[in-house]
Amino acid sequence: MTVHLRGRTAIADRPVDGPLDHLRTMIQALPVPTAPLTFPSREAALGLALMDLSFRLDHVPRLSEHLTLMDRGHMSRTISVDVDLDLISGRLRDTLLVPGDPERAGPPSLWVPVSRYSRRDLAPVTIRDSSGEVVPRLSHRDANRVTAAAFVKLLSMLINAHDDVSAPASPIHQLRHTHQRSRWLIEAAITELIMVGAPAGPRLHTPLDHADLLDTGGGGSRAVRDLALLGLDDLFASEGGEVPFARLLQLAIRQYVLVAQLGLGRPRRFLTWDAPLLPAQHRPAPLQSLAKSVLPVNREFVVEYETEIPRSVKAYHLTLETRQEISVRRFLMSCDVDEEFVEVLAQDLESVAHRAEALGSHHKLLELEMQSIASRLAELGRRRLVDLAGYEAYLARLPIPVGPGSAPPPRPLSAKQVVDALSAGDCSLEVLAAFCAHYASDGMQHLAKSDLAGPALRNIAAGLRASQVGRDITTDNDPREYGAHANWRRPSVELSPQSTEPVRVFAFMTLADEAPALIESITRMVAGLALVVLGIGTLLSGGVAWLYSPEIPEDFVPEQADAVVAVLLLVPGLLLARLDLPSTKSVLGQLHQFQRTLAAASVVVTTALAIVVGTVQSDREMTRLFQLALAVLIGILICCVCEFYARRIHRSSPVPRSTKIPRWLRDARRSTRPPVEPDDFFDARGEV
Amino acid sequence: MTSPANSTKSSELARIAAEAAGTYFSSVQFTLTHGLGNGPPPMPVIDPDKDDPNGWPTDFCHFSAAGLSVSVSTWPSAMSAFSGRVQIGTDEDAGHRDTYSYFGHAVPNPGFLNQSTRKVEVLITLGTAHWSPTYREALMQALIIEKLTALAAERDAPVLHLHTPVAPVPLSIKSERGDGSNERLRDAIAPCLRFSIGVDPQMSGARLDFETELAALAEEYGFGLKLSDQRFNRVRGEWFTIRGFDRERFRQARNRLFPRASSNTPRRAAVVSVVGPSRTGTTATAVAALRERGVGVLAASISSMRKTTFINLVLPVDPEVPEELPPWSGGWLDALPRLSGFATLRPAVTDRADDSLIADWKVAVSPPMRCTYPNSSQQTGATTTGRVPYPIWLWWQIPHRTVDTPALLGVVQAALQPHTRRCEIAYAQSRLCRGDVVRGRAKLIVMLSQEKRDHAAVQRLLTDATETAQLRIREQLPALGRVDPSKVRLRLSPRERWLTYAGISA
To answer: What are the boundaries of each domain within chain A?
Structure first.
């Protein structure tokens, strides 16, 4: 029996049954137990109940996250949840009861999971309720122990319910009845994995990596291990590549469950805690960073944030707060709440396209499928149109509103044009919205006879996936400039009602230095310095002819050079001291990097001129150097003007250039510029 | 690219395991009652101690047809050690004549995940006359049930429910589309069969293949086929006609397949319940085994409760079978000879390999009892007398451990009493759902006390009766079970699709 290591791909393309590979590796590496690993049944029941509730979290109707950007690279999060214990079903409640002290009167309390987070984040977490009191927590060690008990119990349930359990020669029967050591080995491996945890990395590091076992042959334990592995294969012979047990185990070994003790006396509670500090996952793009630092592009600081929320959450608030000097220029949130629905729809489209011929002989069946597809397409169009309207309203209420731009207003499409556009794979919002209108007015009947039924459906499926219509858009509604808030509500009609797949949330924020900005002060300073140089030159030559005339004025070298040097050194020094230049580590420092360079360059110019005044005695050289200094200062001034122009462009940008913004929105606003990578990316999904 | 494992199925597994491993409960206890169908649904014989919170049944199912009925209740049980997956006791004296009760235990099957599936509901029309099937039609019906469920089993799709006979759906006339307020009144029951399967939404190919083969089957046998309207925002009770009923082709197929079967209507029938852990393909196996032994299916109600499947069948009994046969319970393989005794024309049967699928299942068989059929219907023109049974649908949601389903059904019957001459429960099913609420659906068959022939007048009478009854029930329920009235949701309507509450997720 060989161990297949399939977990070598990147995190995003992680294979489905990675955790079972971890389990297989662990089965190979652990010593074979000689006695069963028994957990109290109460702990197993508690573990299963915690696992169940922590996946769904349907007792958490509202979730809020408050983000604070500490510096470049770190984000702190404060999480608040509303918990409603009445939403936990009676039988689970019995299991979750905290064994109380019989002498202490008062209502009993429950262990309630409130969140899950990555095992990497080992910072202490203190949960407080609305009155500020600390809420007791189940320690990680206890939580891990009950989780291990739960998995051992689940394994035995799956073995007991397996069809082969009564077939004497099968590995399942052997695991259950005759060769129990193999089962104990699986149980021990599960327990070890859960107690110790395993990173999401490529493979588990075990002592086996350091030994060459080929010559020893494995001894007597070999048969036990082989049966355990064979049993796993039989037990989790996956259908369609999905092994629910594997997914549960994967989450259990990568995440901690945060469990709070809550009294039943107050079933509705508000809890808050500081989540572990989130480090940014820097994406190195050296050329891009360099360009941002040395070109007058009026740098923005782009932060992307990704997290997962339970599907049952009814309202999710995301707030962002920064230093008062930093303005939040754009704040958008996008959730993939309808992604599963779109994927199912796309698969339906492809299946119907594939079977168009077979379905063709049952005309009404094809019509039913087409109508079902049409109704869902229309609903998607309607939803995204609502999102787009919200986005347009957001752009209009910005401090500097962004208009519709030069794009022509959408032209009304006839039913035939809509069908043609869809057949060509054009699933832009314009087409979907027109389709929705035609469908609602009964203009899309008898689709089975139309051009849509057939290979065109494949184009629609591809178009739907490409335009990411499963993602919605929520916009900022915080009037403050240095804060942002987006409130996402679960759609009134859930399109995938049975799903408990968590919803992925992407937040996109652009931080910028808005008026009164540093660049304005620097422009004033540079202009002032240019005027000083111009003034000194004019006074020394007795006119402005030195600026343009090829003749060299006489007596340009000042008689009292010290006074001129003092003016050239003191004025920039005083002006520079008035500027509040931030540290380079902070976000503000990043925003001001180029502008700081401009300020420093202008001071360098005047200082150099002061040195020239002090040392050069030739009129000709002095004149030329004064001309040069003025030219450089004007050059710097032009850079400042470019910064203003770049700021204007940034402000009027209709759609953020990010991959996290759904394609349909970028298409709707005719944005053709390629997306750029963010400066910071924070991943709070807790899975890695 | 590999897709990430589906969290929906994982969390469903976690939920099942968490419920199954509850601190005190590791199995499901059930009671099964066979009896006569004219009257209120029988109360469970062990009346669970209402002070004990765990004594409340979690699921309930009642079905009545041809004057016979079967009801099943389940609740969690602490019993964990017994041999096999399911255990059933012998008949216990229920205290009433012609009522036979059985108790049993079953181990739920956590490997059977069906919550994340997409439901496809099918309505099959096997005739347009009023419902009084012959032996031959019963055999034909068994064949069709077998074929349909086998189609589902081939795709590993579980049968979520199957009922026959059910109310037919009148053909909609284009001008009457819309809210349905003007649609023709439905018959209470007709030779129709309704069943639903669960298909993984990610496997639309399997669903389409199923539907195509279903349509091909409809073409072959001539039965009418309607599928639930899968358009967005359509509710249960809205149908899309795929094929109309082809009387001639159906008759030919029936006569060709079962030339020797009697064309008389059975006078006696037995109720048979086959119980076991839920798996796919079990219904097809059970019905096929019976049909091969010459036993047809008069009526059927199949549903899964707590991952345990209950196949309740009403089997016609040949007139030559001796009058007195005692009630019986035992294993499936032992039951087969007894069940094949219901038919006298027995084809030679060879044991089939897939019988092993339900070899560990248990069976309860009632003695043959006298069966009756409704003698009037809309379609056969019985409106001249005005004494026509009409269907009324009921949907409810109440907090668990307040009012149990038989009591609620009793209240509903009492509330309809002033308006009706007769009120029977054709089927009722309730389940414990997420959020600690019991949700249920029922169909009642009523005969109005005022005999009206005019369509509009009957419509008005039915609407008035249901609205008044609904108010009355809402008043009575809080007193009955100390239930918070704001948590009760209940709809009673002569149209099935009006039952749905606003589809806004809570």
So the answer is: 18-59+87-108+138-258, 280-336+478-512+670-688, 339-466, 518-651
Residues of chain B neighbouring A200 (CB-CB closer than 8 A)? none
- Look up the CATH number of the domain holding residue B469: 3.30.70.260
Segment B481-495 mean pLDDT:
84
Q: What is d(CA A190, CA A167) in angstroms, rounded to the nearest whole number?
A: 25
Structure tokens at A166: 């009564």
Whether the CB-CB separation of B281 and B354 falls below 8 Å is answered with: yes
| Interface subset of B 430-459, CB within 8 angstroms of A | 432, 434-436
DSSP string, B42-97: PPPSS---TTSGGGS-SEEEEEEETTEEEEEEEEEE-----SSSEEE---EE-SST
Distance CA B80, CA B368 (A): 34
The CA radius of gyration of chain B, in Å to the nearest whole number, is: 22
User: Chain A residue with minimal CA distance to B279?
Assistant: A163
Q: N- to C-terminal Cα distance for chain B? A: 36
Structural domain range at position B187: 114-380
CB contact under 8 A, B11 and A44: no
Which phi and psi (to 5°) does residue A628 adopt?
A: -60, -45
Out of B340, B360, B380, pick the residue that ends a domain. B380
Distance of alpha carbon B493 from alpha carbon B465, whole angstroms: 9
Contacts of A365 in chain B (CB under 8 A): 211-212, 215, 227, 242
- Of the residues B336, B360, B380, the one at which a domain ends: B380
Looking at the structure, tell me whether residues B344 and B464 fall in a common domain. no
Query: B413-464 pLDDT, tens per residue?
Result: 889 988 888 888 999 999 888 778 889 999 998 888 887 777 778 888 888 9
CB-based contact (8 Å) between A90 and chain B? Answer: yes
The pLDDT tens digits of the residues spanning B7-33 come to 677 777 777 777 766 645 567 888 888
Q: Which of B111, B115, B227 sits opposite A368 (nearest CB)?
A: B227
- CA count, 13 A, side-chain hemisphere, A310: 23
ipTM: 0.87
Tell me the CA distances in angstroms from B295 to A256, A423, B185, one per residue in order.
Answer: 57, 53, 34
State both tokens at A514.
Answer: 């808005």
pLDDT in the model for residue A120 = 75
* pLDDT tens figures, A367-387: 888 899 999 999 999 999 999
Nearest to A368 among B24, B111, B240 (CB): B240
B 175-194 residues with CB below 8 A of A? none
Q: Which of A60, A242, A314 to mutate to test the interface with B (most CBs of B within 10 A)?
A: A242
